Amino acid sequence: LNRRKGVSMARTLAAAALLLCTILGSISPSECFSLSLARLPSLGNRIGARGARRGGVVGGRMQSTSPPKTSDAYRFEAVGDSLPTRDSGKVSWPRLAPSRFTHPLDTQATRALKRLPFAETLVRQGFGGMVEQAIYLDNLSNSVRVGPKQLPDIYEMLQEAKEILGLSSLSVDIFVRQNPAPNAYTMAMQGQKPFIVLHSSLISLLSKEELQAVIAHELGHLKCEHGVWITLSNIITVFASQLPGNLGRTLGETFSASTLRWLRAAELSCDRAALLVAQDPRVVVSVIMKLSGGGAGFGQDLNPEDYARQARDFEQESERSWMFRRMREAMTSQLSHPLPVERVRELDKYAKSSDYRILLNSGTPIGGK
């Protein structure tokens, strides 16, 4: 009986893999983004790193709902190739849905996995919950927990970012951990103990506005529940790759490529979450720039506008010929985060889009009802 159940489960997971890979087949390579080192990773991505090299999920185009009517409440203008600027106070979205800002590939991948019966329960109440608790205890024992009386500036950054992203009711801990490598991560599951970890060197490197953007990026992973769905993706990948013969190998390879594309898109979604909190693309671009080539001694001399132009130059150069496009794909095919310049270019485009402008105009002032 147990063997029959195992065979049935394998067939179900294989069917799920085929379904997701079929959805992925509607996406051309030019619509997917290439990857880079995990500079602002979620722990959910880190936990699935091994599986991500061989594990996967889907893509597609986001089906948008009717947006609210735009208004002149929030003036938003880009001059030439310059990054957009804001000229009013911050706004928030108490009922912000992830679909309002997520990358299309991220949205489609999540929707596909939500169709699998009992899959979410398996991750939340099984493997995911145990890992989340273990990592939480590790940070509780080896890090400094932020609170109203412990690093209060960082605590206030978190509270404002939660309000802006419609997460005020979610209890999230921040831990500061001694580490010379600038980094941040989250469990990204919205389980019993959601938390964010900031390395001490990251706090030293960034301004207050930039540090809040990093916190917002990690809150984006929590908002989108990336840990749940990426963990499930890796579970399906492992089962699919164990199928006999060429079928298992083909599914494993296809799923691996699709998961990596999803991981890239998930990071782009969270860069958008960072922008929604900063409401100034220069702040988020500056974070990416400093993590790429910044330092405590010359951070003030770095120019986000010039780095955005560098990102545009990279896009133009890499699209000059078929060979350059292939080189770009080869650079990134096995990585889980977009290249820094591609993150900046994507953020630049999103910050100038009507979707972002409409979203800003639909918000309410910070502290408003």
UniProtKB/TrEMBL annotation:
<keyword id="KW-0862">Zinc</keyword>
<dbReference type="GO" id="GO:0046872">
    <property type="term" value="F:metal ion binding"/>
</dbReference>
<comment type="similarity">
    <text>Belongs to the peptidase M48 family.</text>
</comment>
<dbReference type="InterPro" id="IPR001915">
    <property type="entry name" value="Peptidase_M48"/>
</dbReference>
<protein>
    <recommendedName>
        <fullName>Peptidase M48 domain-containing protein</fullName>
    </recommendedName>
</protein>
<keyword id="KW-0479">Metal-binding</keyword>
<dbReference type="Pfam" id="PF01435">
    <property type="entry name" value="Peptidase_M48"/>
</dbReference>
<keyword id="KW-0378">Hydrolase</keyword>
<feature type="domain" description="Peptidase M48">
    <location>
        <begin position="152"/>
        <end position="350"/>
    </location>
</feature>
<keyword id="KW-0482">Metalloprotease</keyword>
<keyword id="KW-0645">Protease</keyword>
<dbReference type="GO" id="GO:0006508">
    <property type="term" value="P:proteolysis"/>
</dbReference>
<dbReference type="GO" id="GO:0004222">
    <property type="term" value="F:metalloendopeptidase activity"/>
</dbReference>
<keyword id="KW-0732">Signal</keyword>
<feature type="signal peptide">
    <location>
        <begin position="1"/>
        <end position="32"/>
    </location>
</feature>
